[in-house]
Amino acid sequence: MKQQRNQALRVTLAALTALACAVAFARHHHAKPAAGTPGRFDYYVLTLSWSPTYCLTHPQDRHQCSGKGYGFVLHGLWPQYDSGNWPEFCSTDPLPPDARQLGVSLFPSQNLMEHEWQRHGTCSGLGAIAYFRTADKALAAIHVPSGFEAPRHSLSMTGAQISSAFHAANPSIPADGLSVACGRGELTEVRVCLTRGLTPRSCGKGVRDTCPASPVEVPATRGQ
């Protein structure tokens, strides 16, 4: 009798474990991001992608962004919370034709432009045209160091060196006001934290460097 009870208990525990795993799997693979409230955020993160790396890792956009000799390009302007989280997918408003026309003049590809509007722009509290114009103003407010203006030869630099170059070109950016992102041994992005009025400020939680201490490649912009 005792043996039967132990066997039943083992079966029950196995079933509960399987159910818990199934629930965890479903949450991981099917959960949708929590929607935010348009206009409710603390600051912006201006994200600049290094074009050669972006084109390499986004093959669906390569026909639109390759061969143009770009260096840093606008990836996005992201509403952010000081707590380290961020709002996203705040509405499903489609892009009107005039906003779409403006957006494609600012982003390296139409796919990226549409994605950035749906995921981040809808949380800005701005209409599409106003959001794209704000992103353009944010981009214009940051000076890209001259060494990154479409270099013809690949560079080898540490994340700290890239950060120092941006600080030297933008003295108003606080020491903790930007981060450098790397992936697979290459520079991918530089992210600058800005107030809602688009002036440099310290970053909130979660905005941090992801580059190794060793040098990474900054691929040349020619022949993308």
Please, could you describe this protein's structure?
This protein has 2 domains: 1-31; 43-218, Alpha-Beta Complex (Ribonuclease Rh, Chain A). By secondary structure, the protein is of the alpha+beta class. The chain has helices at 2-30, 51-57, 62-65, 97-104, 110-119, 128-141, 159-169, and strands spanning 43-50, 72-80, 155-157, 178-183, 186-194, 216-218. Helices cover 37% and strands 17% of the residues. Mean pLDDT is 81; it is low at 1-34. It is globular, with a radius of gyration of 22 Å. Strands 2-1-5-4 form a 4-stranded antiparallel β-sheet. The longest helix is centred in the first third of the chain and has 29 residues, at 2-30.
What order do the helices and strands come in, and which of them pair?
Layout: H1 2-30, E1 43-50, H2 51-57, H3 62-65, E2 72-80, H4 97-104, H5 110-119, H6 128-141, E3 155-157, H7 159-169, E4 178-183, E5 186-194, E6 216-218
Antiparallel strand pairs: 1-2, 1-5, 3-6, 4-5
Helix pairs in contact: 4-6
